[in-house]
Amino acid sequence: MKTFPDNFLWGGAVAANQVEGAYQEEGKGLSTSDVQSQGIFGPVTERVAGDSGIKDIAIDFYHRYPEDIKLFAGMGFSCLRVSIAWTRIFPNGDEQQPNEAGLAFYDRLFDELAAHDITPMVTLSHYEMPWGLVNQYGGWGSRQTIGFFERYARAVLARYKEKVKLWLTFNEINMSLHAPMTGVGLPETSSKSEVYQAIHHQLVASALVVRACHEIIPDARIGNMLLGGLMYPLTCKPEDVLEALQQNRAWQFFGDVQCRGSYPGYMLRFFRDNGIQIDITDADREALKSTVDYISFSYYMTGCATADDALNQQLRGNILSMVPNPHLASSEWGWQIDPLGLRTLLNVLWDRYQKPLFIVENGLGAKDKPDADGVVQDDYRISYLNDHLVQVREAIDDGVEVMGYTSWGPIDLVSASKAEMSKRYGFIYVDRDDSGKGTLARSRKKSFWWYKEVIATNGESL
Ligand code: BG6
């Protein structure tokens, strides 16, 4: 019978800037997320305390985490993926010493998880960095940022070495090509050389932190995190097949460097063909040799690639400019739903790297409405997650090594792309709307009970 391994980790994933709130408490500095109140694609805006930017409070996880963790434990979670807000530890990014109050907060959080036997998985930078580093140094455009990131990472690795054994460096590192979270603008506003130089700095920083983690916590595992943007050729025309290969390489390149330890030949050609000049030192090349222990990725959708320029202009739609697949339905936000694509992606990654895989995000953003009894009957979410998990089980049966699955947003949170509350992913409903109104009370949706059963049976109920 097809099964999940006995030690398979089940749980959910959240990010500091999308749940914590408390954006200026206990010495926290402003992050890039704090100044992008309209989401990761939005403009930088001045923040004024109490101006009701939705992320100022988010879902108030900073104060309510004991209640939330109890609810997660009620579903039987064995793993919770969280991120550390870099600005709680180094408020401006360039301080010599960490902020003790920020460190103490995550101690309390990890202790609470331990009390419920939930393994923490920690992302060091989830779509945010200190605004001070962007303002004063140019963010990842500056080589100095590598040192600031390593200092921050070493501080938290040393502090939590007994409490955290699963780490991730940058969330969806390949999104640096599409959104200006790195302090370097979009390709429209920065040159390709500037964008790839900033990415190079991040890749070197990631590798240096992999090395630091191996030194500081020898029994820990540290991985990368990719947005798994699997592309299919729109047709079987050879030109479309080649175009899909190239578009897949646009994200696989990050995995290739982080898993294999050097720049692949196709990327060097891409740089040559596009007149991209980047500064790669011998020390950088040496640093990149520290490769990750496992690969984590998010999976929401697939897209199609075509070499036909006219079709591209006409059809390219969602955030990654994918051409829609005529065979798939879409979510309310236009994200195409493709459970089988998850099995394919798991196999592609396994065949390419032969490293353990962890699905650290997957889920359906939907407009939930509580019924007359106050319960969200989210059968659509159950069906989405069920279909995806069935394909994970198929991939395991194909021989792929999968460490675990953390669904995105097990509790409703602020969306990353548009900073809205109405795009809900949770098993737990949070009473707060897009304008910030609501009691912040938590309640269980129908999917809460479904996921509890999945975990209790280690996937046999699927
Ligand atoms: C991933 C991010 O891209 O997708 C999360 O790592 C994000 O931070 C998630 O929330 C879903 O995207 P959105 O825009 O629906 O929140």
UniProtKB/TrEMBL annotation:
Family annotation (InterPro entries): GH, GH_1_N_CS, Glyco_hydro_1, Glyco_hydro_1_AS
SUPFAM superfamilies: (Trans)glycosidases (SSF51445)
Active site: E361
Cellular component, GO annotation: cytosol
UniProt record, GO biological process: carbohydrate catabolic process
Assigned keywords, A-Z: Glycosidase, Hydrolase
Coiled coil, from the record: none
Domain of life of the native organism: Bacteria
GO MF: beta-glucosidase activity
Record family assignment: Belongs to the glycosyl hydrolase 1 family.
Protein's name in the database: 6-phospho-beta-glucosidase
Taxonomic placement: Bacteria, Pseudomonadati, Pseudomonadota, Gammaproteobacteria, Enterobacterales
